[in-house]
Specification:
The complex is a heterodimer of chains A (208) and B (782).
Chain A lengths: L1 H19 L9 H6 L6 E11 L7 E10 L2 E8 L3 E5 L3 E6 L4 E5 L4 H14 L6 H4 E8 L2 E8 L4 H4 L2 E6 L3 E8 L3 E11 L7 H7 L2
Chain B lengths: L1 H5 L1 H24 L4 E2 L13 H15 L1 E8 L2 H16 L4 E5 L4 H11 L9 H8 L3 H12 L7 H6 L5 H8 L7 E3 L2 E6 L2 E10 L6 H21 L4 E6 H35 L3 H25 L2 E2 H11 L3 H13 L6 H25 L6 H24 L14 H15 L2 H18 L9 H4 L4 H14 L6 E7 L2 H21 L4 E3 L1 H4 L3 H26 L3 H11 L8 H5 L11 E3 L4 E8 L4 H7 L7 E4 H35 L1 H24 L6 H23 L4 H22 L5 H20 L14
Parallel strand pairs in B: 1-8
Antiparallel strand pairs in B: 2-6, 2-7, 3-6, 4-5, 5-6, 9-12, 9-13, 10-12, 11-12
Helix pairs in contact in B: 2-12, 2-16, 4-10, 10-11, 11-13, 11-30, 12-14, 12-16, 13-16, 14-15, 14-30, 15-16, 15-27, 15-29, 17-30, 18-28, 23-24, 27-28, 27-29, 28-29, 28-31, 29-31, 30-31
Chain lengths: 208, 782
């Protein structure tokens, strides 16, 4: 549950990112957005993330890089400390600094992995499943657009109140609201679809 | 005696009254319904005399017996889900279905989480406690990563109450999760052979159903599957559950009843027509057998309240033994001189058939030594049936005034006569030699007999059901076997602690591959000792690690102090009753058994494949019972096979002594030679054919004794010419062999063993029967 929300966010981020790479299309629909996702072999970029939690006297800020390929998603946090998260639809791998790699698979957290699978499927253009789990609102407004997602089924609905994606030509921001007043916002920059080959370092992480 | 049977009318009226009473009784019992049963559980004995274990067995069988599992598969996932949904709805409309689960109850997770939330500090898993003992670095690292990761949870509330996010891990450890199933939009999905399968589970209102209910539900189920498949081509159904095996058993038993019944009847018809060229003996035979069956049914219903399908299949064949009586009477009739009357005929055969009845009933009653309710019912049914048939013959034979004639060229008559002559012509020395040679064969052959009491060999289950079960088992990743451990002690706390010690062993077994998984109450309600241990570990974690962790996140010192105080308080333990009374225990509540002075719980074992190894590992826990239905039954069958052997010996001895009062010991011993030798040689032959023997072979020998002794008694008691009696014996041996020969075609190995043994045993008993001639009081008439 906990992990899945993050994956969902990432899925949407990357969906938005691909849209951004194709500004010629004048009429944006969810279908157009998802269909183009399969066009890219590899997508890379930077992110900054801010988490507001009422109990904390200051927001938790973090930032780093991400990579999406047909082997899954890598979330490489650089600030305030190094950590890497990999999701490939079969399992989730997480490493803090140079510590041990934690593995979460179907046997330990079947729900989490199965939901992560849905979102990776979506990247590959199979958006039909998305509508099974969410009420999807897609609003193009001239050159800007907004996607609103409200979970319709348990257990997602328990973890997430509302997800909002905002963008113009490029994706600008993803917000995830949960609980009464907590919110997480992720912003993106420097999105690139080249080079199309994975670097040795990236392959090494996928191979964990 | 004579006056009783010569007043034909009076006895006929008495018989008619008896049959009317039997008919009315049976009809009223049948009209009340649920008189015919086919459930295997009704046949099986209580596997042990341990009352608690018996209760546990009933719980486990009841739980598993009422469960149905379906996988609805389609290449297209949404189609599979849609079809599963429709199928589940349709399935649930039947009155015998208590509940259907197609989608996971969304409230269940919430319920479990909210139930355990107050006790979260007492519910730490083994892994979490080990992590704390190692200094909790990993726990703090994971929690920190969680706070920063995009996958993070933790809002203000949960951060204050579960700062290291341990509840989710604790809950995951509660329930073993299937390796292959995944939750998808509330459906449980698995992929197999390129299809997406949705799991649909259902519970029936009861683990056992009457035959009508079975039939009714099977039709409904077929319709539901046909409807679903009809609207979605490419749909695949896999199913398993006790119901399907029970239903298949009923179907095959029904088929066998008609084959055996029809086959026996045709054989009889042919035999009578060939011999007497008249259907009258047949009418007498059918009348005696049908009356016998009616009588048997009435008595059985009066005693048991129901009759099992198995009893009908077997019992009808056993009552068929009563054709002997009719054949003897018919042979008397056919061979009697012109002064012959039914009364005279009856007098001639009276002693023979009465002794025959007594020995057969004795043999049938000997079947009751095995504590199988099925066999006890069978013994009662068959004994009552024989008595009914016997009375019918005595009372009704005088209905027919016209004489029978017999075809002198009848192949049976001539063969019987010739065969008897061979024996009578045999020189004294040769008779002893022959008997001596057979005795030697038995002495050498008997010790080489091998027995195998494994019940899994005895049950034959339809291939396609076994295949579907294997496939579902593979997809679910658990084996819904019915092995379990029974842990009992004098208090709840002791039982829970005992379970926890046992689980250490079970976890080792899982690790070693001897077990797939288990389900135990102490997972859901840890012992107080374990809860105290968990609470202590939690407090240590909070006191040692929380302040620095919270400071790094930016929580004020004041708030941190509040959280530390809150999370290191004492806590009320989670009690077994809290759990039992809450809906979260729905699925597993029945595993907890409350006794008068004892508490006990069942640990369900899934996929146990090393029973012996487990028992060895449990030698330190003498109070723990390892229950494995198949193994228990195999042991039981073995024990009773040995017991039946003793009963046989005792029966031989009793019959010997009984006969000795009439014939003297030496002649009585001669009379016993044919059935005794037939039984022993029969077992040796069957064993020699490459079969290992089981309880049912030995039970059959009891019948060989009961029927075989008839042959020798008839010969010893014959008033008419001996070849007439021999001829009658030939006919009855043939009919017995026809009906039991048909039983040996049964697809149920137990029934097959039984039928084959009787077939071979009776053939031998018949062939050896002329030995009885040497025990006649007067020297033979010719």
């Amino acid at each position: 549950m906990r992990l899945s929300r993050g994956l969902l966010i990432l899925a949407l981020i990357l969906a938005g990112a691909s849209v951004a790479d194709d500004p010629d299309d004048s009429e944006l629909t969810l279908e157009v957005v998802t269909e183009r996702l399969s066009k890219f072999a590899v997508l890379r970029g930077r992110y900054t993330q801010t988490r507001k939690i009422a109990l904390l006297s200051r927001p938790l800020d973090s930032g780093g890089r991400f990579v999406l390929s047909d082997r899954g998603l890598q979330w490489q946090q650089e600030e305030p400390f190094k950590s890497v998260l990999v999701a490939d639809g079969e399992q989730l791998l997480q490493q803090m600094a140079d510590g041990p790699v934690t593995r979460i698979d179907d046997a330990t957290q079947p729900m989490v992995v199965s939901i992560s699978r849905i979102f990776l499927d979506m990247f590959r253009g199979r958006h039909g499943d998305l509508e099974e789990s969410f009420a999807v609102r897609f609003e193009p407004d001239n050159d800007a657009w907004e996607i609103g997602l409200t979970p319709t089924s348990y257990p997602l609905s328990e973890a997430i109140r509302q997800i909002t994606l905002k963008g113009r030509i490029h994706i600008e921001q993803v917000s995830v609201a949960s609980g009464a007043s907590d919110e997480m916002t992720i912003s993106f920059l420097d999105l690139q679809t080249r080079p199309e080959q994975l670097t040795e370092h990236e392959i090494e992480i996928y191979d964990w | 005696m004579r006056s009783k049977f010569t007043t034909g009318k009076a006895s006929l009226i008495a018989w008619l009254c008896l049959m009317i009473v039997a008919f009315v009784w049976t009809a009223s019992a049948v009209s009340e319904g649920d008189w015919l049963r086919s459930n295997i559980f009704n046949l099986l004995p209580a596997s042990d005399y341990d009352e608690l274990k018996e209760r546990a067995t009933r719980v486990v069988e009841g739980e598993l017996g009422a469960q149905l599992l379906f996988l609805v598969g389609h290449a297209d996932q949404p189609t599979a889900k849609r079809s599963a949904e429709r199928f589940g709805e349709e399935l649930g409309t039947h009155r015998l279905i208590a509940s259907v689960t197609t989608r996971i109850d969304r409230d269940r997770f919430t319920n479990i989480a909210s139930f355990y939330f107050p006790y979260r500090r007492q519910m730490l898993s083994d892994e979490q406690l080990a992590g704390i003992a190692e200094g909790a670095d990993q726990i703090v690292r994971d929690a920190t990563a969680m706070m920063y990761s995009p996958l993070a949870a933790g809002n203000s509330d949960s951060l204050a109450r579960d700062p290291f996010f341990l509840l989710s891990g604790s809950l995951t450890a509660l329930q073993p999760s299937s390796r292959r199933l995944r939750l998808d939009g509330n459906y449980l999905l698995a992929e197999q052979n390129g299809l997406n399968y949705v799991l649909v589970t259902a519970r029936m209102v009861a683990p056992t159903l009457s035959i009508e209910e079975q039939e009714d539900f099977a039709v409904h189920l077929d319709q539901a599957m046909t409807d679903a498949s009809g609207s979605e081509p490419g749909l695949d159904f896999q199913r398993t559950g006790f119901f399907f095996y029970a239903h298949a058993g009923t179907q095959s038993a029904k088929k066998e009843v008609s084959i055996i019944g029809l086959g026996s009847l045709l054989g009889l018809l042919l035999l009578v027509l060939l011999t007497f060229r008249s259907l009258r003996p047949l009418a007498l035979i059918v009348l005696t057998i049908l009356s016998g069956c009616l009588f048997a049914l009435a008595i059985t219903l009066a005693v048991f309240g129901f009759v099992h399908l198995f009893t009908l299949v077997f019992g009808a064949s056993l009552i068929g033994v009563s054709v002997d009586y009719s054949f003897h009477y018919a042979a008397e009739d056919a061979f009697g001189d012109e002064n012959w009357t039914p009364q005279k005929g009856l007098r001639h055969i009276f002693m023979g058939i009465t002794l025959g009845l007594l020995t057969s009933v004795l043999a049938y009653l000997a079947l009751t030594v095995a504590p199988f309710p099925g066999l006890q019912q069978l013994a009662l049914f068959s004994s009552a049936g024989l008595i009914g048939a016997y009375l019918t013959l005595l009372c009704c034979c005088s209905i027919w005034r016209r004489r029978l004639s017999i075809d002198d060229r009848s192949v049976f008559l001539r063969a019987a006569g010739r065969y008897l002559e061979i024996w009578r012509a045999m020189k004294f020395r040769n008779r002893y030699l022959l008997v001596g040679a057979l005795a030697l064969m038995i002495a050498t052959g008997f010790p080489m007999i091998e027995a195998n009491d494994d019940v899994s060999v005895l049950q034959s289950q339809p291939e396609n059901l076994k295949r579907q079960e294997a496939m579902i088992r593979e997809v679910l990743g658990v084996d819904p076997g019915n092995s379990f451990l029974l842990a009992s002690a004098s208090s709840d706390e002791e039982v829970l602690q005992l379970e926890e010690s046992l689980r250490v062993i079970l976890d080792d077994k899982i690790e070693a591959g001897g077990l797939l998984d288990y389900q135990a109450v102490s997972r859901w309600v840890p012992s107080r000792a374990r809860q105290a241990q968990s609470l202590a570990g939690y407090s240590k974690l909070i006191s040692n690690r929380l302040p620095a962790y919270f400071e790094s996140l930016g929580v004020s010192g004041e708030k941190t102090a509040d959280v530390v105080t809150d999370l290191t308080r004492e806590s009320r333990p989670l009690e077994i009753d809290d759990w039992l009374e809450h809906p979260v225990s729905d699925q597993f509540r029945s595993l907890w058994l409350d006794g008068e002075n004892v508490s006990a719980s069942i640990i369900l074992l899934y996929g146990l494949n090393d029973t012996v190894g487990l028992m060895e590992a449990l030698t330190d826990f003498p109070s723990v019972v390892v229950a494995n239905k198949a193994r228990d039954m195999s042991n039981l069958f073995g024990r009773y096979r040995i017991r039946v052997t003793w009963v046989l010996a005792a029966a031989y001895a009793i019959i010997l002594l009984g006969l000795a009062t009439r014939y003297g010991l030496r002649r009585a011993a001669v009379l016993l030679i044919p059935p005794v030798f037939a039984g022993a040689l029969g077992l040796i032959i069957i064993s020699g054919l490459g079969n290992s023997l089981n309880l049912f072979n030995f039970l059959a020998i009891i019948l060989v004794l009961g029927i075989g002794i008839d042959f020798t008694l008839f010969l010893a008691e014959a008033h008419a010419e001996l070849h007439v009696t021999m001829f009658a014996i030939t006919l009855s041996a043939l009919t017995t062999m026809i009906s039991f020969g048909l039983l040996s075609l049964s697809s149920t190995y137990a029934v097959h063993s039984f039928g084959l043994t009787v077939l071979i045993g009776i053939a031998l008993a018949y062939l050896l029967a002329p030995i009885a001639v040497f025990a006649r009081r007067e020297s033979p008439a010719r």
